[in-house]
User: Fold this.
Amino acid sequence: MITAFIFRALDRNTYIVLGLLLAVGILLPLLSLTDPSFPLHVPTYVIALIGKYLCYALLALSVDLVWGYCGILSLGHAAFFALGGYAMGMYLMRQIGARGVYANPILPDFMVFLNWNELPWFWYGFDHFWFAAIMIIAVPGLLAFVFGWFAFRSRVTGVYLSIITQAMTYALLLAFFRNDMGFGGNNGLTDFKDILGFNIQAPATRGVLFFASALALALGFLICRAVIASKFGKVLIAVRDAESRTRFIGYRVEGYKLVVFVLSAMMAGVAGSLYVPQIGIINPGEFAPANSIEAVIWVAVGGRGTLIGPIVGALLVNFGKTWFTSGVLAEYWLFVLGALFVAVTLFLPKGVVGTLLARAKARPTSTSAPAAVSPIEASIAAEEGA
Amino acid sequence: MTATHVETSSPAAREKASREKAKNSLLYLDGVSVSFDGFKALRSLSLVIEPGEMRAIIGPNGAGKTTMMDVITGKTKPDEGDVYFAGDTDLTRMDEASIASLGIGRKFQKPTVFESHTVWNNIDLALAGVRGPFATLFHRTSLRETARIEEILDIIRLADKKEWLAANLSHGQKQWLEIGMLLAQEPQLLLVDEPVAGMTDAETRETAALLREIAKTKSVVVVEHDMSFVRELDVKVTVLHQGSVLSEGTLDAVSADPTVIEVYLGR
Assistant:
């Protein structure tokens, strides 16, 4: 059943994307381990940078799964990303052990600083990697389940849903800022030493983390592809196009939304968990509402309703951000981002990939009607009409 | 055939009497009232559809036709009154999805198809069968389902356009696709809201023929403004006005009814 499910997803484009991701995931870390005099040597900072982008791409993919395919515009996905990140951060904190500033074998530094005498119950188990790995998926999934259960059952849709997802991530931001929450407050979790016994700063560890990010993105892509190729995926698109019609032919829409929202939150959690060891810190800033909006912009730029689009969008926008913010124009980045979003909405409503796909499709069959309107175009037209 | 409102003081006795009357009908509405912010969309509406019957419902704008459809399909809950399906199923306690699964299909006034799906996928989605999220995740279309989809595409004459996106169909073709989706649901009762709005005369005639064909095996309720189309259907007509039944009978009989003439022409 599962194999057939995955097998259906494998078309030519999927093989190309998976092949590319795995090739990049293996080659770049290997090149970074070469001698700096080697002509193809890749500096470590490049690995850290692109590794970060790959995590962003997985976050973008998870946003696209709910927004591009089911019409749920979540402006709170950074919350799931950050929760996955905190779960990983807690594991990494426990690995520091007695090497902290206060040399307490059990308590992380910030707890000693707060004069706490014992580990809060919710930190139990995070000294085991397997436990943290489960929490990375379970905590965002549970939050998405509870949130989605109430929101979708009450039939909260459209802009109202977007607003409450913003409120959710903002509430978490404020909560995690508080010292007595037990997650390091304003400073968050940092000063990581080891992951699974390996020095987190070592080039080889960085290479493996990079590969893990590429692999996670490839798996996420494969899962999304399989979901979209199934009848479940067709129902998602049906919900996006005409929700009440879908109800009247007998589908319980809230169930579909809930399943896809939880799946998407779990993917965002995994992205966050791989982001944190590569960046070396997780703090409440990751919950900032602007982060979620930025993720939506990556998807819009790349092309929502295509699975390659969000990956391309996340990479493009973040390369742009890195390039722009390292120059003299750094302080104008947010204006550029805003202008980019407006420009894409006006001139490329299908995004970069969506536009290219529509063009590629239109050329060979320009005489036949089916290609005249691409799926995403039709959905956008339907939304505008509504 | 209008069911008279059951006048009994005790609710239990009233419900029992209602159920007794509903027993032999496919769809039974009695004393249904709905109001939105004080506006009474339905006032003690009563209507009985027999199994295998085709009924045309006409009435001026605001007569409550669409609200009646909403009540039957679970979109709107009535403030009071009984709605029973197949004799003993109380529709007022169910949601849209479970009512659809019971065998009540609905076609909207404005053609509502899944624009970014192909014609084939539109029918496939409507096809009676799996509905749960996990069932659809692992579902594979069986040969029997494929044959049924082909069959429906032939009936609605869209077999040669099965790979087309629904967005690219003409208005009339979308209406037909939606009727095809209704058929795919294998309903016992079809509620069809203005199926020929915006159609050419030829399309209107073909649609009437199609609905008559469907009515041979299923009950059909058609809401329509177009009188020539209603004449073409040649079935019993119910006239709604201000949320309740004004007149009922053959088209000729209701056309001759002075109260109907007054409502339609005004005085």
